[in-house]
């Protein structure tokens, strides 16, 4: 018995020693604006898992700075840390597991998340002044550089929250067409176990654009975001592998004319159990668009057992809720109003078995609320 106790005590002491050693090894590496990118890259490459790379206040001009996984990258909170790109490329690139990115101002370029990324915490940052291309017609050859946060393959167990996206692709915001890939604040593929919450989007081509392309799409929440002055769509989701997607408590207002196909929320997905609830989608200013002056759809809903409940859609939208390919879709307890609005309509001639509409309030008023 005595030997067993000695062995247990030794094991405990060894574990504590290892833990203490790991804590001692974690350190903060400070970089400053006067350093060349090669110096900053060397500091990152020489850091260790658990370390923090602190960017002092000031402006850094960067291109494809390669971030190592398992680290935190923090901007100044007693000033502004601006990481500036000159267009046509991302400012920072990340591959792997474990990223904390906070308090950075991305100016003229965004953050690229490549491959199967997990454990990414992108929070309290600003993404601004990102251009479509050299002019309003020619797009940069590397179109991914026109996005605030771009996910090229998948992201899981992550959080993209409390960020600001402003003045993105302003060159095309008043074009009467959908420009190519719809440059966005957040654009990505393959989301699961991820939250996108409390972000602000102001004067952007698109806010959030997600393709659910893989066997994922589970436990994704897009909640409490604010969108103003959006050209194409505030939230656009496509393809078929999502399951249990929630889009809730978002506030969308003042879509930009003159693009007639602007939407509030588009869930053109063939997945299951999407819930779109308690969003406010408002347009109080008529667009200037010739003979048809209503902007497109407040909510576009497809999928299996999709629920559209407790939303408010009001103003100059052409359609309140437009239903695409679907089964067992529920439209319930929504408030829909607008002088030219088709309140609930089937977007396609496809059969919609099990579609149910109940308890919705409609009026031709320009403004309404619950």
Offer a concise description of the structure.
The chain has helices spanning 2-25, 37-45, and strands at 28-31, 52-55, 58-61, 65-67, 71-74, 81-84, 92-102, 105-107, 111-123, 126-130, 149-151, 154-161, 164-168, 184-189, 191-197, 200-204, 206-211, 220-223, 226-230, 233-239, 246-248, 251-253, 263-269, 275-277, 280-283, 295-304, 307-309, 312-315, 317-327, 330-332, 335-337, 342-346, 356-358, 361-363. The chain is mainly β and 370 residues long.
Query: Based on DSSP secondary structure assignment, what is the total number of beta strands?
Result: 34
Q: How would you sum up the major sheet?
A: 22 strands, parallel
Portion in strands: over 45%
- Which descriptor suits the 3D outline? globular
Helix content: under 10%
- Rg, rounded, reads 23 Å
How far the N terminus sits from the C terminus, by CA atoms, comes to 71 Å
Q: What are the segments in which pLDDT stays under 50 over at least 5 consecutive residues?
A: 1-23
- Please, how many domains? 2
């Amino acid at each position: 018995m005595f030997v067993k106790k000695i062995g247990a005590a030794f094991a405990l002491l060894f574990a504590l020693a290892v833990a203490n050693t790991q804590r001692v090894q974690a350190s903060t590496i400070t970089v400053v604006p006067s350093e060349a990118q090669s110096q900053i890259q060397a500091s990152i490459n020489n850091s260790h898992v658990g370390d923090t790379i602190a960017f002092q206040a000031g402006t850094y001009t960067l291109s494809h700075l390669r971030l190592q996984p398992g680290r935190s990258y923090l901007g100044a909170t007693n000033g502004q840390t601006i990481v500036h790109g000159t267009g046509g490329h991302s400012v920072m690139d990340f591959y792997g597991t474990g990223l904390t990115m906070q308090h950075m101002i991305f100016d003229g370029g965004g953050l690229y998340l490549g491959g199967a990324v997990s454990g990414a915490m992108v929070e309290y940052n600003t993404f601004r002044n990102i251009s479509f291309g050299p002019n309003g017609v020619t797009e940069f050859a590397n179109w991914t550089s026109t996005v605030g946060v771009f996910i090229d393959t998948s992201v899981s167990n992550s959080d993209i929250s409390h960020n600001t996206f402003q003045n993105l692709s302003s060159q095309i915001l008043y074009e009467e067409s959908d420009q190519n890939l719809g440059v966005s604040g957040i654009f990505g593929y393959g989301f699961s176990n991820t939250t996108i919450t409390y972000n602000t989007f102001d004067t952007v081509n698109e806010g959030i654009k997600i393709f659910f392309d893989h066997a994922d799409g589970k436990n994704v929440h897009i909640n409490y975001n604010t969108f103003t002055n959006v050209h194409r769509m505030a939230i656009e989701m496509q393809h078929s592998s999502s399951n249990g997607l929630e889009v809730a408590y978002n506030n969308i207002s003042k879509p930009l004319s003159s693009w007639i196909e602007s939407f509030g929320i588009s869930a053109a997905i063939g997945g299951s159990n999407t819930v779109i609830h308690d969003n406010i989608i408002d347009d109080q200013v008529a667009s200037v668009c010739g003979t048809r002056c209503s902007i497109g759809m407040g909510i576009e809903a497809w999928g299996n057992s999709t629920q559209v409940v407790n939303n408010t859609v009001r103003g100059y939208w052409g359609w309140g809720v437009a239903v695409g390919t679907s089964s067992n879709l529920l439209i319930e307890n929504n408030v829909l109003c607008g002088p030219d609005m088709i309140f609930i309509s089937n977007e396609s001639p496809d059969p919609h078995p099990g579609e149910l509409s109940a308890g919705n309030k409609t009026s031709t008023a320009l403004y309404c609320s619950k």
